[in-house]
């Protein structure tokens, strides 16, 4: 029976098997990748949110101010007992007393302290400078060093002795280390707002704290805080499970305390709940956005399976006619195709599903997908395989039914093919592209403060694909017409070129098909990479202009005026700037000699900035200044009576000022009295925030509350979501590129006998092998070159138009811009050259190994 022998019969046409398997592989790869991409985006969003919140905020937090001292132990006991039942570890408890006045050290009763205890704090989270652990308290070194307090000193409060100072710890910097993040308000003494005699004394253990509080008769615990240091969730499902368990624990603790009449003794909260909502939204945004592209890619894969079915039908036509004459029905003949090609299709689809999971880290967001995503991706792949096999059987069944049972003539088919060839498909795709552009214009309206994740309209996302497809169809139609008229070409003085033209003209359908697929692949790849990288670079440039350096810290005027020198540890990486506003201008006072060593310029040309900064000391009337903003109505008057500015050059933007109208002047242009009128001084540094604040502390300078780093200045998640979304478009382009390469190689292989015979004959007629190779390279190079040039140019132009539209922070300069497309263009060109060389080698190999007599006899 032919059905039993079908798998073995399939080996007689390995090319068809390869095409069927690769088509199924790519379709299942893209279908599975769409599911994994969105799930990984959710996981990456969870990871991002986990990195920006306190490490003990993933689970529930129990906190309240002014808890009665007698009630606090009951609250702690209730949380600890219920935590284990809901899968949580032992909570970390923090307790702080109110400020205790009248604390005496070495006979001086004017100190103010807060007694505190935090589980695990003294085990590696406080830096012991002197002394040793023991039954007592640890005192900060700032107060101890300033007042000469040593380890072993026994303080007293209102005459009541308390356990001795057993250790001196280095005061927590502001901002505090990450482990102390949630305790910033209580554990870190703000020296700018507090008396320098203030200090937080940490008890060595809980018993010491409890006994001391009982001895002093402290009625209230100023702050009671309990939280859990759980492992950060990696996926959305893990985060949701953590939130559900957290809610259950809060409810259990509330019920437990309520039964004792202490229902209001503590308040439970879920600080990470909003982060989980945002991560869920990021996952759904990416999924909804890439869904049309995934559908298009799957439809393309199904169309490929349909093409394979037609090729198989043409190859097996005599056998199918014979089987039909013997009584086999259309459905049975369709199942014969499934029996022959089903195994390669299933194997290819399975391989595509596995590859989509294994390569997720290469093409997808840097997050872990949910376990369920792998299952859903497998189900999508299984559905694609089922549809592919059904389509394979259906195409064969319909064709055999129409030809063998209905006996339709082929003229109708020819008319239909002719109609499909001449139908203006480019008008239809252009209309869809226009619809997507109209949706894309509205995207920037959702890009504003307060909207953390603007929705990417699915139709807007298809706009670049349909623009590239439209250009590819127009190019294919022009190529079709040119090849149709190519018989008029008379270039026999250059036989290699004439032969290349004739070979192209003899295969117009494959040529135009490869041109469309190649243009679509390269254009989609260029668009996806351009938009994705454009948003990543926009995040970097916007944060650079907004912050001005890696770290920006407001500081005291004594530093700005030069009365206190910068510490040596940061002087080589830090510069001082002053800021004034008024008269319609923002004025930035800089030190030209140190500004470039610390500042980040974003998209500005460093050489041009250096030239202008060096010109700030040029002589002349007025204050030499760099004019920012290119505002025609900008007035030269400077605020605070500094005089008029004399512009020595213009820049479209500048760090901190942005694109607002303003001037940059040198501090050397101002007198000491004028420097004293500058209301705001800041430090720009390439060092970390911790290094800057600790260095300033060593010289007695207190940093104000306005501190910002490039890493934390902007919410990066909206930029990442756009990048993750369009990385799928880049993936689609890469897959289509593989299809285009395979199509070109298959087209060469299908015409192997024809090319071999023609090549052997022209060699017999005197053409040199080098000329014949050049002819093949002209043919293939023209086709690939057109696809590369049209695809890259179209993709770059579309990405250039689209990148500003997808900017999730249009309120911050500079506007998102297309990154340098040169590396992508060179890479695509190099790949194109390699493909052309490989295809030319295959064509020449068939000529060199051909036996002319056998080819003519066949």
Structure described in brief:
This protein is α+β, with helices and mostly antiparallel strands and 858 residues long.
Could you walk me through the main structural features you see in this protein, from its secondary elements to its overall organization?
This protein has 29 helices and 20 strands. The protein is an alpha+beta fold. It has four domains: 1-53 and 276-406, no CATH class; 55-275, no CATH class; 418-545 and 715-857, no CATH class; 557-701, no CATH class. The strands form two sheets. Strands 1, 2, 3, 4, 5, 6, 7, 8, 9, 10, 11 and 12 form a twelve-stranded mixed beta sheet that branches. Strands 17-16-18-15-14-19-13-20 form an eight-stranded mixed beta sheet, with helices on both faces. The longest helix has 43 residues, at 273-315. It is flat, with a radius of gyration of 37 Å. The model has no long low-confidence stretch (mean pLDDT 85). It is a multi-pass membrane protein.
Features:
flat; 858 residues; cell membrane; 4 domains; ABC3 transporter permease C-terminal domain-containing protein; alpha+beta; eight-stranded mixed beta sheet; 29 helices; ABC3_permease_C; 20 strands
């Amino acid at each position: 029976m032919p059905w039993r022998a079908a798998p073995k019969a399939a080996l007689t046409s390995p090319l068809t098997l390869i095409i069927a398997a690769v088509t199924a592989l790519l379709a299942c790869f893209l279908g599975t990748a769409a599911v994994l991409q969105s799930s990984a985006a959710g996981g990456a969003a969870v990871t991002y949110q986990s990195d920006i919140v306190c490490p003990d905020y993933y689970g529930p937090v129990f906190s309240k101010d002014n808890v009665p001292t007698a009630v606090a132990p009951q609250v702690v006991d209730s949380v600890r007992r219920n935590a284990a039942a809901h899968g949580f570890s032992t909570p970390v408890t923090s307790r702080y007393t109110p400020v205790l006045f009248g604390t005496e050290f070495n006979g001086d009763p004017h100190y103010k302290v807060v007694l505190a205890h935090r589980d695990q704090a003294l085990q590696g989270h406080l830096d012991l400078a002197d002394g040793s652990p023991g039954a007592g308290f640890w005192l900060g070194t700032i107060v101890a060093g300033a007042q000469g307090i040593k380890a072993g000193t026994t303080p007293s409060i209102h005459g009541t002795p308390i356990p001795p100072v057993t250790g001196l710890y280095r005061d927590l910097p502001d901002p505090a280390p990450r482990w102390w993040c949630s305790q910033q308000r209580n554990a870190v003494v703000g020296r700018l707002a507090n008396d320098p005699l203030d200090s937080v004394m940490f008890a060595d253990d809980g018993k010491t704290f409890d006994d001391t509080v009982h001895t002093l008769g402290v009625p209230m615990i100023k702050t009671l805080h309990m939280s859990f240091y759980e492992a950060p969730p990696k996926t959305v499902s893990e985060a949701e499970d953590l939130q559900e368990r957290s809610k259950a624990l809060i409810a259990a603790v509330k019920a437990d305390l309520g039964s004792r009449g202490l229902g209001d003794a503590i308040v439970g909260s879920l600080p990470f709940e909003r982060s989980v909502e945002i991560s869920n939204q990021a996952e759904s945004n990416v999924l909804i956005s890439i869904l049309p592209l995934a559908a298009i890619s799957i439809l393309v894969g199904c169309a490929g399976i349909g093409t394979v079915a037609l090729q198989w039908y043409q190859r097996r036509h005599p056998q199918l006619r014979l089987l039909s004459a013997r009584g086999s029905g259309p459905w049975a003949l369709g199942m014969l195709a499934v029996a022959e090609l089903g195994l390669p299709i299933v194997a290819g689809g399975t391989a595509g599903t596995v590859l989509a999971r294994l390569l997720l880290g290469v093409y997808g967001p840097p997050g872990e997908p949910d376990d369920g995503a792998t299952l859903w991706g497998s189900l999508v792949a299984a559905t694609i395989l089922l549809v592919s096999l059904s389509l394979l059987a259906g195409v064969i069944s319909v064709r055999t039914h129409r030809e063998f049972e209905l006996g339709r003539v082929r003229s109708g088919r020819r008319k239909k093919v002719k109609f499909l060839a001449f139908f203006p498909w480019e008008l239809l795709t252009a209309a869809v592209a226009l619809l997507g552009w109209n949706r894309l214009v509205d995207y920037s309206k959702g890009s504003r403060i307060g909207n953390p994740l603007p929705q990417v309209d699915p139709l807007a996302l298809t706009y670049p694909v349909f623009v590239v497809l439209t250009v590819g169809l127009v190019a294919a139609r022009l190529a079709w017409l040119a090849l149709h008229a190519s018989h008029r070409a008379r270039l026999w003085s250059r036989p290699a070129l004439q032969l290349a033209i004739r070979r192209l003209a003899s295969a117009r359908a494959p040529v135009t098909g490869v041109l469309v697929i190649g243009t679509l692949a390269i254009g989609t790849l260029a668009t996806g990479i351009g938009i994705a990288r454009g948003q990543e670079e926009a995040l970097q440039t916007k944060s650079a202009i907004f912050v001005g350096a890696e770290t920006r810290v407001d500081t005291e005027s004594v530093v700005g005026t030069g009365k206190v020198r910068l510490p040596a540890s940061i002087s080589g990486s830090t510069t001082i700037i002053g800021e004034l506003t008024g008269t319609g201008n923002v004025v930035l006072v800089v030190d030209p000699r140190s500004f470039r060593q610390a500042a980040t310029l974003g998209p500005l040309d460093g050489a041009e900035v250096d030239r202008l900064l060096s010109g700030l000391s040029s002589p002349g009337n007025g204050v030499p200044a760099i004019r920012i903003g290119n505002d025609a109505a900008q007035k030269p008057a400077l605020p605070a009576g500094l005089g008029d500015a004399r512009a020595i050059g213009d820049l479209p933007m500048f760090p901190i000022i942005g694109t607002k109208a303003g001037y940059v002047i040198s501090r050397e242009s101002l007198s000491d009295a004028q420097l004293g009128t500058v209301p705001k001084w800041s430090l720009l540094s390439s060092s970390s925030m911790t290094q800057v604040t600790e260095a300033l502390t060593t010289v007695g300078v207190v940093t104000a509350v306005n501190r910002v780093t490039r890493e934390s200045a902007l919410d990066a998640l909206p930029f990442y979501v756009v990048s993750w979304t369009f990385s799928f478009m880049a993936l689609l382009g890469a897959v289509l590129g593989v299809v285009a390469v395979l199509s070109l190689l298959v087209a060469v292989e299908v015409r192997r006998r024809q090319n071999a015979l023609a090549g052997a004959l022209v060699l017999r007629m005197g053409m040199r092998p080098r000329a014949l190779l050049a002819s093949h390279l002209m043919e293939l190079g023209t086709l690939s070159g057109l696809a590369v040039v049209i695809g890259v140019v179209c993709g770059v132009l579309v990405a250039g138009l689209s990148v500003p539209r997808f900017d999730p922070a249009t309120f911050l300069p500079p506007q998102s811009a297309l990154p340098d497309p040169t590396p992508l263009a060179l890479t695509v060109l190099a790949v194109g050259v390699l493909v052309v060389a490989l295809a030319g080698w295959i064509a020449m190999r068939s000529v060199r190994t051909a036996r002319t007599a056998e080819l003519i006899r066949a």
